[in-house]
Structure formats: structure tokens, C-alpha cells
Amino acid sequence: xxxxxxxxxxxxxxxxxxxxxxxxxxxxxxxxxxxxxxxxxxxxxxxxxxxxxxxxxxxxxxxxxxxxxxxxxxxxxxxxxxxxxxxxxxxxxxxxxxxxxxxxxxxxxxxxxxxxxxxxxxxxxxxxxxxxxxxxxxxxxxxxxxxxxxxxxxxxxxxxxxxxxxxxxxxxxxxxxxxxxxxxxxxxxxxxxxxxxxxxxxxxxxxxxxxxxxxxxxxxxxxxxxxxxxxxxxxxxxxxxxxxxxxxxxxxxxxxxxxxxxxxxxxxxxxxxxxxxxxxxxxxxxxxxxxxxxxxxxxxxxxxxxxxxxxxxxxxxxxxxxxxxxxxxxxxxxxxxxxxxxxxxxxxxxxxxxxxxxxxxxxxxxxxxxxxxxxxxxxxxxxxxxxxxxxxxxxxxxxxx
Length: 401
Fold this sequence. Notes:
Elements: H1 10-14, H2 17-48, H3 51-59, H4 64-72, H5 75-78, H6 81-101, H7 106-117, H8 120-134, H9 137-169, H10 171-192, H11 206-219, H12 221-242, H13 244-251, H14 257-279, H15 282-287, H16 289-301, H17 309-320, H18 330-336, H19 342-370, H20 373-386, H21 388-397
Helix pairs in contact: 2-3, 2-6, 2-9, 2-10, 4-11, 4-19, 6-7, 6-8, 6-10, 8-19, 9-10, 9-14, 12-19, 12-20, 12-21, 13-14, 14-17, 16-17, 16-20, 16-21, 19-20
């Protein structure tokens, strides 16, 4: 094993103070955001009795991110990182506080959520750019891995904490707790990040520059392939996971089994990222990235079979480990980033992930309505497997743009 092919260690990653600060801040912010989404959904349902409006409250922050990522993404490279990220968390704290303190009409509440969501890819892209600048080699890949694991854990903790806080205090006090988490994240960034360096010079108006940059990134053959290789499996699997409650009910599993099945994939994702990120050599991660995509989708194809609950849960855990395929793409993805648009590339990645994870459940939900949840889940698994060639094409044909 060469030195450059040696897996990085968590000690090396967390030795970087900037990464530590962003890790803590993002964990606090994601937990607070998940709590906010849950509490707002409960608040809207309690005030209207409408399942549709409650669902819109839950998902109002996703689709607007597509607009923000396409039209504002260049700001990640044009503005100073510490100021931009601190402002982002501060704005989200203010949003949660307003929702908790002010009685607003439902359309106004959802409108505020949507407006703030437009800027989320900008904040996230700037944070990702800072991490890419401060961590090098395999430490960067492992840093992305641990960030992904902490994000999943923070989402689960935020939703669980939201349930407890709403039950004990009510939705409005829970929203204030969410605001406190976001404010704490802003303070961590303000104190923990080094002094801002001068921003990259702008190329005309921000909106025009963002649109031009996004189009040019998507037209790049290597970047486009790597973006879709990361977007599509997540969209298909998110669609399958959205059907697990209905699948569980159709199979006659005990009450609460749907939640267990939804958590199984997250457990697998955590295990896969930990094991592959820490113990597998970088060259092997990259060589077998396509195989991990197959592992991600293949277990879903088996769900139409009459399998016991424990076996289904085990298959979902196994499939979740396949999310480690993303670790095999990170070095190539970062190397493909053009000068001056690294932050925008990360913003575009975040934009596509959020948008397509919203579209996936919708499309597969329609399919399940006309067929069955188990068949729709199997289709999602087969579609995931078919993405594997996107992952391995560079190794077969070379890095042609």
C-alpha cells in the first residue's frame, strides 16, 4: 500500500480546527432544521386539520432549493465564507423564531420557509468549499464521510427530539428550540472559522453568473456524469423509502414496523460510510464504487417476495451500506471542479439532491397507486442498479470531457 493510498484517520480529519467548527455547526443546524420541519408540520395540521397543508409544511423547504441553487449558486464563490455561513445560520434561526413567536396565516408561513430555502444551497455550498480547501487527499474524502454520517444522525435526532419537544411543550416552543440550535451554529462558525479571505471576483450579475455557471457545469461531460451518479440513486432510494409505511401495512406487519424499516436504511448508510471510509483503501473505494451502487439497489428488487419482517429489515440495512459508493466519487468530483466555481459545484450537487429526493417519492408514489408499493420499490431498486455504469465509465473510458 502506498502512502497516498493509505486511508485517512478520524484523528487527522478532526485535527483541522476549521473542519471541527463546521462539523459541530452543521450538526446543530441540521438537528434544529429537522425539529423545525416537524414542529411546523404539527402546527399547521393543528390549525387547519388539513393533511395536504401539513405535508406542504413538511416539504416546503425542498423544491425552492432548486431555484436558489440555479440562480444564486455563484454567491458561494463571490462572498466571504465565514460571513456567508454565519449569516445563513442566523437567517434560519430568525425564521424559526418568527414561526414560533408570530401567529401567521399558513400561506405566509410556507412562503417564508420557501424564501429562506432558496438560499440554503448557497450556505451549504460555501461550507463544502471551505472543507475542500482545508482538507486534502483522503482526509477530504473521510471528512465528507463523517459529515454525511453526522447529518443522518442529526436528522434522526432532530425528528425524535421534535416529537418529544412537541409532545411536552407544544409546537411553538419547539420552534424556539430549533431557533436556538441555529443560533448556536452561527456562533460556532463565527468563532471557529478563520478570518475570511478575499472573495473570488464576480463575473457580472450574480443571477446571470449563477445561471451561466450552472449550465456550463452541467454541460461538462465529466461533471454532469458525476452529478447524476450522485443524484439518481438517492432519488430512487428516497422514493422507495417513502413507500415503506404503505409496504409494511400491505404486508400485514405489526404497527410501527414501517418506522423500523425506514430506519434500517439509515443504519446501513451509517455502517457503510464508517467501514468503507475508515478501513478501505482509496483505490479500492474508487474501483468498486459501481459495485456499491448495485448493492444499494439490488436488495430492493427482492421486496415483492413474501419475506419475514426481520429479513426485509436486514435487506434494507445491507442495501443502505451501498451508499458508501459516494466515497469512491469524491476525489474525482473535486478534481473536476473548475477554478473559481468549486463552491457553486457543491451548491449544484446539494440542489439536485434535494430536488430529486422530492421528485422520487412523487413519481414512485404514483406508480405504487396504480400497481403496488412492493412493485414500485422493486422498480426503484432496478433503476438504481442501472445507474452503476455512470459510476464506472471513467475507469473504462478515461476522463474525457
